[in-house]
Amino acid sequence: MRRLRLLLAYDGTDFAGWQIQPELRTVQGVLTAALTRLNGDRPVSVRGAGRTDAGVHALGQVADCGFAGELPDAGVAHALSRMLPDDLRALAVATVADGFHAGRHAQAKVYVYRVDRSAHGDPFLRRFAAWHPGPLDQEAMERALACIPGRRDWSGFTAASCTVEDKVRTVFTARYAEEEALGRFTFVGEGFLTHMVRNLVGTLLDVGRGRFTPERITEVLESGDRSLAGPTAPAAGLFLERVVYENAPGGSA
Amino acid sequence: MRRLRLLLAYDGTDFAGWQIQPELRTVQGVLTAALTRLNGDRPVSVRGAGRTDAGVHALGQVADCGFAGELPDAGVAHALSRMLPDDLRALAVATVADGFHAGRHAQAKVYVYRVDRSAHGDPFLRRFAAWHPGPLDQEAMERALACIPGRRDWSGFTAASCTVEDKVRTVFTARYAEEEALGRFTFVGEGFLTHMVRNLVGTLLDVGRGRFTPERITEVLESGDRSLAGPTAPAAGLFLERVVYENAPGGSA
After folding, report:
1. What is the ipTM of this complex?
2. CA A236 – CA A215 distance, rounded (Å)
């Protein structure tokens, strides 16, 4: 029995999110089925670094699982390449220290939210960005973004469905940049709660549109009042870009 | 009554091609329905520069139609933006000279075929590229590409379903380039027959793989024998990038 670490990319459009659920097509479910077959039909428990929601994409999700099969790492990678559907790909497979835990040892996650800024809506971005053609006051957005980094209670930006008791998390950086017609929010933090990035983006876009002043971020944070925040931005724009590990038993990913 | 020229972009994945057909979702069909409504339910005849196949995309398809409505060009553009689905977008609308004909006045078309060269298959390119992870002999492909430009009879590269009698067309340029993990074939010609670009790409990739020598292109051209060519490359990789007009009554597009 050894422990495998997997680096995954997926187009989340046709998945009901990461977490395995009966009768739904989920990333964890499809991956577990493939790994169980490779493991000689012995059950496999797959753990992910983060539970992406339905429709959310990943460029670099990390998962781990125990594996009793004799196939070497390259053989597992090759077999997964053939077994997994074309919207879920294993980019790398490696044997890591037994104690590695994709979720617990993640030191930071990088999420990117993409905004289609084209006047007419890019038909090739409709699954991979939210469309906002109108003017955005980037200076106001910069001031709002500056209120985000730090160790804070994110209750006001968290979905009501989030059952985690302790809503204190550290966000390291929050940025926005536009290149040609594509806007990109980047958030780096130790962890993010349910809908937190999408609620931040919805609020930041409302600041950019002039619906809120930049101080709204602090007002939501201090009051913890979700109703003061902007709408939850659509899942299609969100990507788990990377999970950062340092000094973890599994090494860097 | 005036004549409108439309610049269109579409994700061809969910369209049964350009040409209007009963009970199928086609680009011409969806566009005709929207323009007919804007034209006060008077019938509208929409002509395209090229008939893209099912699954083929467009970054710059051009169409024209007669229009009796009083809405100015900007109003038509704005209304289409709201009425058209998010996989079909009108990028520009302009009134042109009455004699303009999107098909007959096109002097050249630029088609791009995209190849995903990543080892594991990029899940975000599966609708917009064909996946070829193996080695490609680019030098052999260059020699094969060099046999393409010119005024030739393309019978050997044309689908059996193509009913055009005269299969002589001029191709101006045929190129291939790779940037990071994305390969791009670019073909510029006065016009292309049914499946011609996809059959050329299928044959060129077989040259790159070493299945054919570069001379195969000339053999197919001289014999006109379709069975000597490679397979038809999948529709998903093909984009009508641009239609070139010069000295046409409608001006440049």
Report:
1. 0.85
2. 27
